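User: Please predict the structure of the protein below. I'd like the answer in structure-token form so I can feed it into my own downstream comparison script.

Assistant: Understood. Taking the following sequence of 447 residues as input:
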Amino acid sequence: MCWMNRSVWMMAAALLLSCESVQADDWPQWLGSERNSVWEETGLIEKFPEEGPPVLWRKEVGLGYAGPAVAGSKVYLFDYQLDSGDLAPSASARNRLIGEERILCLDADTGKQIWEYKYDCSYFVSYPSGPRCTPTVHDGLVYALGAEGDLTCLNAENGKKQWSRSLKQEFGMEEAPFWGYSGHPLVDGDLLYCIVGGEGSTAVAFNRKTGEVVWKNLTAEEPGYAPPTMINVAGTKQLIIWHAESINSLNPLDGSVYWSQPLKPQYGMSIATPRLEGDLLYAAGMGDTGAAFRITAGGDGQPQAEPLWTGTGRTGVYPANSTPFVEDGVIYGCNVRPGTFVAADLNTGERLWETTELITGDRPAPHATAFIVKNGNRFVLFTEAGDLVFVNLSRNGFREISRAHVIEPTGDAFGRPVVWTHPAFAHRRCYIRNDKEVICVDLSAQK
């Protein structure tokens, strides 16, 4: 009887560990489960087959810059169902569209639709091809922030609405930010953090279960587009809010400001997620605007930040819509102008090398974009041309290992076709979407 109980206990423990392993392999939000752009799975192919990796399924979807989220056996996708309007992108004008925003739930193994939730939503933003924010899936709930500021919380299992709020209307915004609401919502504990806008409400913390406002703080001429980011450094947990005028550290529980440093990119384009390595925080954007800050504990025990270097000319990496990766004191990222892939020293900003080969080939292109994920001792890039690329990156250079074209670029940027959506990496697969379909690509090693 004792041995039987022990066997039952061991089986239960094994099952629990298996469940935890599956959960760890999810990609339930922007940049993955830890928001660090790291894909932990093993048992993956080393090189792509000549014919490309197998596509397990395809599902027709609508417009969107929002990447998929994968949690358990489900894929969550946010798109736009267009009824009328002009999609032609412009960096200087807004477009009017009539249509619906829609949250889709699909079976991760087959692509079969499980449920959908949609609502009427007219757009008046630039580059209007759909919502920007990857759904955030946490504790049985899905949070989706649309391009016009519609924040919706749904039951992840059946799609039933739990609560919703109109950020634009409720917080005194006359119109959405020029390029739409883009700050991927962040869950931490019982709070949901969002970049909103309006007087005293650039950053807002909601009760994630009820949608009630817990606190709000900061005022800026424009709220910017960078997602709320949580860090733990100098002995203090800090919520980083980078709006169009400055980068700020807040107490996550009450919104009070620990420190603030000016960091004002061109055109209000604070977009890329700030990156932390050790005690150095890096953030950068348009107009060679960027800096590395050293964060320390002040004499009063409160964290403080001092600029280590600021961007000028040939220093640093200045991304637009792709978040850099920082590792071993090196920043890897896409430089918006002229459009190259760059490595720079985190401590000095000095450029180490740059190339056009990884993204656009022979010549640079403005806003050339690749999404960067670390897997083991290599990186996986997803380029705007629809390619998956395995590559080794170091401060001394790069070595491309293997490349496969997996999806067609259906968007437009400066007259060239692009796909500007971050894939999800989960279950030894890659889930990728454009403005017409979402596909599931098998990256598991063949047995």
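That's the full token string. The first helix runs from residue 2 to 24.
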